[in-house]
Specification:
Number of strands: 5
Structural class: mainly alpha
Strand order of the largest sheet: 1-2-3
Largest sheet: 3 strands, antiparallel
Distance between the termini: 37 Å
Number of helices: 15
Strand content: under 5%
Shape: globular
Radius of gyration: 22 Å
Amino acid sequence: MNKRLGKIFKGDGVIWMIFFFLCMISLVEVFSASSNLTYKSENYMGPISYHAFMILIGAFVAILTLNVPCRYFKLTIPFLLIISWATLIWVLVGGESINGANRVIPLPGGITFQPSEIAKGTMVLITAQILSVMQRESGADKKAFQYILCIVVPTVGLIGIENLSTAALLFGVIFLMMFIGRVSMVQLGKLVGVGVLFIAMFLTLVFTLGSIEGNGGMDTSREDAMELTAENKNAIKGGGVFHRFATWRNRILKHLDKQEVAPADYDLDKDAQVAHANIAIVSSNIIGKGPGNSVERDFLAQAFSDFIYAIIIEEMGIFGAAFVLALYIILLYRAARIASRCENNFPAFLVLGLALLLVIQALFNMLVAVGIAPVTGQPLPLISKGGTSTIINCAYIGAILSVSRSAKKKLSNLTVKQI
């Protein structure tokens, strides 16, 4: 029996345990947090059955991916790049709007596909390949920096039009990969300078063009539960390239506004997500209310997605929240251990890039849930309810396991060869 399981669950055992715990937590918390979905659909088991099915598919994809030797991942780069750019353009032109932004492509059978999930992994894969091929004794070749930016910047731009937080997350991961890949500090310093200048110009445009009346500062995820004026609806649905500026401006202003508001004066409709997330965290009383006993899940429109960490804190307490955080930190640490043992550069860069992609997104989701970062709409990887994101994140885990299983181990820590 153990031999049979060993043939299926190959690769790093710690990664498998982390994956198992995250999936189990996901099933419990999504089931608890989906009260709004069950009420609307009048189907008590429907939402969790769908999510469980997605996790099973994701686990199957992870197993398939880990059985592919990591050296073959490089062969998929041209196809994934074409698919990424084509679908990112498609979603901008004919995508389905979710919370005021075109982020998914509708497919037959009520299925939706989120192109940014494929694009993120593709950029990590391409960056790992360029860095590995262009490693020299003194560091990465200076042209590596140019090649990476020529591919990553257009992709980040396409994603950022509708999903700024995902674009920023991806660019941050690529920057860290270049730092790890020994790209010249002078080049990285210049990139930081250009980035600061770009952010300043961007914020100027957001605060200039993003009329604060665009959506009234309201939580568009609760549009189904609130009456919007005709002007607000038009601002949410239209506006060309700048139609997200109002949302970004309002989120920034809300986050920067530290003025104390008396409980009696707090507008629960205007700031519903943040308010009920805070209530969920405070009402946990450190030890939590227990799985399935959340109250705020009925008021948080994205309780099963963007704010599921607040529900985890409410039900599992501080210790449960710390356990979830520890799982992601251990995932990153374990990925670094796997990378340190790789003889070749490509699998080492790939496993670190994928781990950074998952862990940084998770940390950002947690920061939003506890009110440290502004609302962005980033789900908690491998825990939040999702279709495309769940399956693709499982594929990332499979790729990490593939590296741990098939990458050639170096005999000495003093020797690093190139692929």
